[in-house]
Amino acid sequence: MMLAFAVTSTAQAKTADDAAAKAVSSAGDTADLPIRSHAQLEAWLQMHAGKQTPLDRMPAGARMRFLASLRFGERGLGGFDTADLSATLTPDEIRAVLALFGPETEAYAAHIPSTGSPDGRYPGACARQCD
């Protein structure tokens, strides 16, 4: 499933740094959030290499597919494939990943069904370590 949306409120954009900062407080510096372009994403990934981030909860293959699916527009993230988020993460983990892209994106977490379980076992699928 591909999720696409439009940003409708500048008030939401003003609180983007706060929401994203909460989601990645363990990742260190949050001054570079929210991520609103491919260039910002690449810089953020390089800056946080080797550090704990919400993306680390996804198996490597799922993380690569999710990142490749991101579509950015003038106002930030405009769409992404939800399949790997849904299959590998719990609702709280999905929210934490989407918070990286701002509160207007994080709000869509409630619309993404999650089949991931807190203990890392997925019904009919392999554990987090598999790709």
Write out the strand line-up for the largest beta sheet, numbering strands in chain order: 1-3-2
End-to-end Cα distance: 19 Å
Can you tell me the number of structural domains? 1
Helix content: 25-40%
| Largest sheet data | 3 strands, antiparallel
How many extended strands?
3
Rg calculated over all Cα atoms: 14 Å
Q: How many helices?
A: 7
Give average pLDDT, whole number.
76
Gross morphology: globular
Helix and strand succession?
Answer: EHHHHEEHHH
User: Strand percentage, roughly?
Assistant: 5-15%
- By secondary-structure content and strand pairing, the structural class works out as mainly alpha
Indicate the low-confidence ranges by residue numbers: 6-28, 120-131
Describe how the helices and strands are arranged.
Elements: E1 2-4, H1 10-14, H2 16-23, H3 38-47, H4 60-69, E2 71-73, E3 76-81, H5 83-88, H6 91-99, H7 103-106
What can you see in these coordinates?
- The structure is a single chain.
- The protein has 131 residues and is mostly helical.
- It has one domain (2-111).
- It is 40% helix and 9% strand.
- It contains seven helices and three strands.
- It has helices spanning 10-14, 16-23, 38-47, 60-69, 83-88, 91-99, 103-106, and strands spanning 2-4, 71-73, 76-81.
- Strands 1-3-2 form a three-stranded antiparallel beta sheet.
- Strand 2 (71-73) and strand 3 form a beta hairpin.
- Helix 2 packs across helix 6.
Descriptive tags:
single chain; 131 residues; mainly alpha; 7 helices; 9% strand; globular; disordered C terminus
In short:
The protein is mostly helical.
